[in-house]
Design goal:
15 strands; 262 residues; D-Maltodextrin-Binding Protein, domain 2; 7 helices; 5-stranded mixed beta sheet; alpha+beta; Fructose-1,6-Bisphosphatase, Chain A, domain 1; 2 domains; globular; 37% helix
Length: 262
């Protein structure tokens, strides 16, 4: 199921990624700012144009939501969710932790996700019930059971409230785990969890395009995804607790309660 969607989605992600990679090695990019002070470049918009050219050609009946262009409404149960360049700030400071992320939702739940990291040439992909993969190799989330040897990553949305929560996350988890990191690309951080490199990923102020592809990646690799109140994730959730396994999920929930963030 979804074989055609996956094939076209991977083609679109790779084409956009190669464009991003080419631009990455050019001179410093001109930066503009959105109303919320987030950075945006011509590369974000150029990558979006490439992805749209594939999705509109093959799936004109599907709705599309993109970080840069908003929602293209259609009378469909299917919705593409696109982040053409996840990690724009990283891109503008010549940091290679960047990717393009595309997800397909059916009745508001992700059924397909593709994350392509062009500087690493790593293609992550997952479809519902078919597992998660990277460059043809199946992914299995970490079986780690020890808190003190785990790696926690976190990400936050815009605004002082989300920033304050992120500070609290770092201060707390830095002291009780092996490492606590913020890489600036939520999609890739979720892909890293799916691949077994990290054990927990926390998000406050989540936007759908930042997380949809990564959520199905984690689930299909054997991980668990809820919001901070332990409710099942849905497309309007603004917090995310992604965990490699049940023990890590319990650990994450317990520590969030300690921080009085739930």
């Amino acid at each position: 199921m979804y074989e055609t969607e996956l094939k076209i989605c991977c083609q679109a992600a790779r084409a956009a990624g190669l464009f991003i990679k080419k631009e990455f090695f050019k001179e410093q990019q001109k930066i503009a700012f959105k109303a919320n002070s987030e950075r945006v470049t011509k590369v974000d918009k150029g990558a979006e144009k490439i992805i749209f050219s594939y999705l509109r050609k093959y799936f004109p009946q599907y709705e599309m939501l993109s970080e840069e262009s908003g929602l293209y409404k259609k009378n469909s149960s299917y919705e593409w969710v696109v982040d053409p360049l996840d990690g724009t700030t990283n891109f503008t400071i010549h940091h290679p932790m960047i990717c393009t992320a595309i997800a397909l939702l059916y009745k508001k739940q992700p059924v397909l996700g593709v994350i392509y990291a062009p500087l690493l040439d790593e293609m992550y992909y997952a479809t519902k019930g078919q597992g998660a993969w990277r460059n043809g190799k199946k992914l299995i989330s970490s079986a780690a059971q020890q808190i003190k040897t785990s790696v926690v990553t976190y990400c936050h949305g815009v605004g002082p409230a989300n920033t304050k929560k992120a500070y609290a996350l770092y201060k707390h988890f830095h002291n009780i785990t092996r490492h606590c990191r913020h890489f600036g690309s939520t999609s890739l951080e979720l892909a890293m969890l799916a691949a077994g490199y990290t054990q927990v990923h926390l998000v406050t102020g989540a936007r759908l395009w930042d997380v949809a592809a990564g959520i199905i990646m984690v689930r299909e690799a054997g991980g668990l995804v809820t919001d901070w109140k332990n409710k099942s994730w849905h497309k309007d959730s603004t917090t995310i607790l992604a965990a490699a396994n049940k023990k890590m999920q319990i650990f994450g929930r317990r520590e969030l309660r300690k921080l009085k963030l739930v």
